[in-house]
Amino acid sequence: AMLRLRLLTWDVKDTLLRLRHPVGQSYAAEARAQGLQVQPEALGRSFQAVYGTQSRRFPNYGHGQGLSSRQWWLDVVKQSFRLSGVQNEAALTKLAEKLYRDYCSSHTWEVLPGAAETLSRCRQLGFHMGVVSNFDSRLEVILSRCNLRHHFEFVLTSEAAGFAKPDRRIFEQALRLGGARPEQAAHIGDDYSRDYRAARAAGMHSFLLRVAGHGDGPEVPPEHVLPTLSHLLARIEK
C-alpha cells in the first residue's frame, strides 16, 4: 500500500549522529589534558550509573523541577568524576564546563553512514522534515556544526517540548509544527520503545533503524525495519 506521507520526523542520537568515542574515553582524555589520571573504563561505568540516577531523579533534564539542562549536565559530569575518585572541586568545575562545551562540537559527533544522502533525497522528494529528540537545547548547534540542520523545518527537543519520548505529547507537538495528521507522518529512530512503538501509539507510521547484530529486541514487521538509513527510500518513495 502506498503511504501518503507528508512529514518525516527523525530521532538524532544513533540514528543520524553518533558519538565518535565512548563517554569514558572522552572524559578521561579531558582529565588527562588537565593533569588528572582517570581510567576510561571506570569513568564509563561511573557515567552510566550517575546518568541513570540523575535521569530517574530529574527526568527530562529536570524540566519542571527548577533545573536547567546545563546544570543537569554539569552535575552529571562532576558526579561521574567524583565516583571515579576525583575530589578537587575546582578541577571538577573546570572539567564539567569544558566537557559541556565539547559535546556541542563536530569533533565529538559524527554523521552516520547514509544519513546526509538520505536526508537530501527525502527533501528532494518533497517531504516536510523535523527532528524529535530526547535532547537538550544544544541540539540545534550540534546539527548545524555537523551540517545537518538545513534539512529540517523544525528541531523539537524534549527540553523545549516539556515532554520526552515515549510521551505521545512530544509527537503531537511535532505534528502541529509539521502541519500533518498522524497518518500522514512517519518517525524514524533506533529505539524500539521511545521511537518505533511511541510514534505508532501516537497514530504515526514508524521505521526502526536496527543495525545488523545490534540486539534482537521485540518483533517488528520486516517492512518497518531499516538495516541502514539508505533502506528508507525504498519504503517511502512516492
UniProtKB/TrEMBL annotation:
InterPro entries per record: HAD-like_hydrolase_domain (IPR051828), HAD-like_sf (IPR036412), HAD-SF_hydro_IA (IPR006439), HAD-SF_hydro_IA_REG-2-like (IPR011949), HAD-SF_hydro_IA_REG-2-like_cap (IPR044924), HAD_sf (IPR023214)
Stored SUPFAM superfamilies: HAD-like
Name assigned to this protein: Haloacid dehalogenase-like hydrolase domain-containing protein 3
CDD domains named among the record's database cross-references: HAD_dREG-2_like (cd16415)
GO CC terms, sorted: nucleus
Annotated coiled-coil segments of the chain: none
Family classification: Belongs to the HAD-like hydrolase superfamily.
